[in-house]
Amino acid sequence: MKILEFINDNLDLVYILILSVFIGVEVIKNIPAVLHTPLMSGANALSGVVIVGAILVMLQADPTDYIALTLGFIAVVLGILNVVGGFVVTDRMLQMFKKKKS
Q1: What is the pLDDT along the chain (102 residues), one digit of tens a residue?
Q2: Quick one: which of 9, 50, 62, 96 could link to 79 by a disulfide (CB 3.0–4.6 Å)?
Q3: d(CA 90, CA 78)
Q4: 32 near 15, Cβ under 8 Å?
Q5: Where are the domains of the chain?
Q6: Residue 92: what are its φ and ψ, rounded to 5°?
Q7: For the chain, what is the HEC assignment?
């Protein structure tokens, strides 16, 4: 299979990915709740970069390379979901600070 061959050829990158996931989980878990809003803004910005990067990768991919196209499509969809979810949460949070009508 192409996937197993790719993983065998790029095993060091797979290790870096797994390590970065564990480090990211530990970093996020130890952040106080007060900092979650600025962190979400940063995550939205990074998701925007992921979306653009995934689109560029998909444009450069060979039309018969279904693995690259599928992974690019998944990256675009998940990035868009993350950006939209971040805006929804931010909007709900801003609604809490508006003055209530009597």
Answers
A1: 888 888 888 899 889 989 999 998 888 787 776 666 666 677 777 888 889 988 998 999 899 988 889 988 999 999 899 888 888 877 777 787 777 776
A2: 50
A3: 18
A4: no
A5: 1-30, 34-102
A6: -65, -40
A7: CHHHHHHHHCHHHHHHHHHHHHHHHHHHHCCCHHHHHHHHHHHHHHHHHHHHHHHHHHHHCCCCCHHHHHHHHHHHHHHHHHHHHHHHHHHHHHHHCCCCCC
